[in-house]
Amino acid sequence: MEDIKLIFSRADKNNTGTLDLKDFREVVDHICERYPQVQLYLQKQKLKNFDSLLKNAQENETKQIDIETFKQCLSEVDSQMKSLPPTAQVAAQQGEYLADCFNRMEDCDKNPEGPLRTRESGRHRFHPFRYKHFGQFAPLGGEQTAAQLPGDWISIGYSTQWLWYSVYASKQVSWRTRCMVVSDWFRRYIFGRDSSGI
Predict the structure, then answer these.
(1) Is the pTM here over 0.85, yes or no?
(2) What is the mean pLDDT of the chain?
(3) Residue limits of the EF-hand domain (predicted)?
């Protein structure tokens, strides 16, 4: 919402104070890339493009969109925005993103690849970070686990526990730690948990 006037003025090339859909289509891809919550909102509302969002925000049938209508539809998008969860999955993806940015910093200084800047001319150096949710596991005790995976696939039971074991082991940083973790699981499975210190 802080950049709304700048976005509107960039789309309004003729300085008419209103936008038609043709004007807006020229900046919509950059807006969706710069502000991921717009794209998520469109998917959630099952709207195919930003034109539909703007049409839904209009009370009349005119094809012109003034800044108040523009503010209304983008404030609705902002109200739906949520922060990313503070989980290891998010942190790992952010770390990979940052490492990639640092490795390509010189190239991207010369050839920026991100969306158009709203406060300055030119483009941002990098594409914004996009989080991809790969699912989550929750241990239930008694060697059972619940899992929620992409595509709204949910599983509960012993087989899900073994799926969790395989994912956990694959995320270890080295083969040495993988072998240590797996051997600990086998020892616990054969001899049970050591509860003497409890």
Answers:
(1) no
(2) 77
(3) 1-34
